[in-house]
Amino acid sequence: MTAEEVINIKEAEVIKLILDFLNSRKLHISMLALEKESGVINGLYSDDMLFLRYNYTHPTIHVKTGKGRT
């Protein structure tokens, strides 16, 4: 007899796990890029804080212009 188990995990939870891993390894640029790409944020931040976090902490990952902060 073969036992089969199914685990249902939400996609956002998997992304949060990866974000936590990246944060623990101090891979902050990769973490911010994944947050931007997926739209999943691993934390409780206000809209203002997210704006500042994305636009001023790592200017090299600006997607719209492809350029750093001027």
Automatic annotation (TrEMBL):
InterPro entries for this protein: LisH, TPL_SMU1_LisH-like, WDR47
Superkingdom, taxonomy of origin: Eukaryota
PROSITE patterns: LISH (PS50896)
Domain TPL/SMU1 LisH-like dimerisation: 13-40
Keywords: Repeat, WD repeat
Pfam families from the UniProt entry: LisH_TPL
Record-linked PANTHER family: NEMITIN (NEURONAL ENRICHED MAP INTERACTING PROTEIN) HOMOLOG, WD REPEAT-CONTAINING PROTEIN 47
Name of this protein: TPL/SMU1 LisH-like dimerisation domain-containing protein
Source organism of this protein record: Poecilia reticulata (Guppy)
